[in-house]
Design brief:
single chain; about 475 residues; alpha/beta; D-Maltodextrin-Binding Protein, domain 2; nine-stranded mixed beta sheet; 11 strands; about 15% strand; cell membrane; signal; Bact_solute-bd_prot1; palmitate
């Protein structure tokens, strides 16, 4: 699965101001409540039939199994409206969406990362809903995650969850290596401390090697690894506060050297470039690595599920897997930088076609997006993910749902959220789009070459620097 989930800690730990959003003047239900039926009141008086389309991947293990019920529940709330869901896999959802966007006929709603918003704004088909989302919808949210769905003053959808990208450790292996994981959860660790720890995690038994650390880097997953670590190397975003491109900093070169060093140490496999997300998780469950990344809230749930299958001995567990007590760990800091935890906010983006939608259809799209992102749907999905809820309506629905999480892991996520990377809605969409293009065309292939031992850190740094100056100008990049 792609990534994601959310924090079991309160996202109010992240203090971000939220610009007030005003609903449009269309008449509707004025009842003050956080339930989706009352909150999604925009254009409530209309009885005209309408269909809203949504392109949705498997957000949680059981998410797509609930599509039929979700559509029924939506029509029960709005008898004149139909929610038509197109199912997609994580592997093809982005391609499907891009194909439809390029054809000028995207779905009304698509699930994806908030970091993709600038790209779709530049293509002209993402829909600003700040004039249509009602105050009840806006006020249902914790403030921090909603910021991620904004660009400038525009709001382009509703977030589903906010999660921290962490690492995950095997408790037994950590303790065998003499690592005080509780201390790390509380205080974090520097690159030197992390490097020393994963060296101790390398063990050879019966001719097989257990590595100290494995991260999925095959394909576009390479940029996840680099991006998460860059935030902890003094570069929390591709642009600094002066809107200068940050990856031309000397810290970037230092980071590249450090990440290559972990492979040269033997703490990570030399074949790391061939490790995708599935293989990375398989290696963790079969005891081939002490620490894995990126570690997400749902991984604890997945590990417990596999443990139960091992106990049942019914043949459904991952082949050759062992019982694992999953421990959440922060990423290390680099170059003496302060911690800046990588947060991920994914959600339901609102799209329009080439033709301007009617105010009524736009209001219906907002109702559907909010329905998916709040209340019972959000609570059910986030519970499946081991993720906390970011709406009051979701929290209310989740109150009677059981969730079995390691309290140490809950506290670890809370600690990371205190240093969460803030949203940057101030970055112009054209700059963000250029940065995404540079990342795709230069950073990803060069970093894959670096991981494979085909490109040196210095060569990659110079390639990124050259491309950045070409894209942003000599005065538009960091010089230090």
């Amino acid at each position: 699965m792609k990534r994601k989930m959310h924090v079991v800690a309160s996202v109010l730990a992240v203090t971000l101001s939220l610009t007030s959003l005003v609903a449009c003047g269309k008449a509707g239900d004025s009842t003050s409540t956080t339930s989706p039926s009352a909150s999604a009141a925009t254009g409530g008086a209309s009885t005209a039939k309408d269909t809203i389309t949504a392109l949705l991947p498997p957000v949680s293990p059981n998410y797509q199994k609930n599509f039929e019920q979700m559509s029924k529940d939506f029509t029960a709330l709005y008898p004149n409206l139909t929610l038509k869901i197109e199912q997609a896999s994580w592997e093809d959802v982005k391609q499907k969406l891009d194909t439809q966007v390029n054809a000028g006929s995207p779905p009304d709603i698509a699930f994806g990362g908030s970091d993709g918003i600038p790209k779709y704004i530049e293509q002209g088909l993402l829909m600003d809903i700040s004039d249509t989302a009602t105050p009840d919808m806006i006020n249902d949210y914790d403030k921090a995650p909603l910021e991620y769905m904004k660009n400038g003053k525009g709001l382009y959808g509703f977030p589903a969850y906010m999660e921290v990208h962490a690492l995950g450790g095997n408790k037994a292996f950590l303790e065998k290596a003499g690592i005080d994981w509780k201390k790390v959860q509380t205080n974090g660790w520097t690159y030197d401390e992390f490097r020393d720890a994963i060296k101790k995690g390398v063990v050879t038994e019966n001719g097989k090697t257990r590595y100290g650390f494995v991260f999925a880097v095959k394909g576009v997953a390479a940029v996840d690894y680099l991006g998460i670590m860059a935030k902890n190397a003094g570069m929390p975003n591709a642009f600094n506060k002066d809107l200068k491109y940050a990856y031309t900093s000397k810290n970037y070169l230092g980071l590249l050297k450090d990440l290559r060093q972990l492979i040269d140490d033997g703490s990570m496999p030399k074949e790391l470039s061939s490790v995708d997300a599935g293989k990375r998780w398989n290696m963790f469950l079969t005891g081939q690595t002490m620490i894995t990344g990126k570690g997400l809230a749902t991984f604890e749930n997945s590990a417990k599920t596999n443990n139960a299958k091992i106990t049942a001995n019914d043949g459904s567990a991952v082949k050759d897997s062992i019982p694992v007590d999953y421990i959440v760990l922060p990423a290390p800091t680099f170059q003496g930088a302060k911690p800046s935890a990588s947060t991920v906010v994914d959600g339901y983006m609102a799209f329009r076609g080439k033709k301007e939608p009617t105010a009524e259809h736009k209001a219906n799209v907002v109702k559907a997006a909010y329905f998916l992102a709040s209340g019972k749907v959000a609570a059910t999905t986030n519970n499946d993910l081991f993720a906390a809820n970011i709406t009051q309506s979701g929290k209310k629905e989740a109150a009677n749902m059981k969730i079995d999480r390691n309290p140490d892991n809950v506290l670890a996520v809370e600690n990371m959220l205190k240093n969460a990377t803030p949203a940057r809605s101030d970055i112009p969409s054209d700059l963000s789009a250029k940065a995404i293009k540079l990342e795709t065309e230069v950073i990803v292939p060069k970093f894959q070459g670096l991981i494979a031992g085909e490109v040196t850190p210095e060569a990659m740094y110079e390639a990124v620097k050259t491309a950045a100056i070409a894209a942003f100008g000599a005065d538009g990049v960091v010089k230090d």
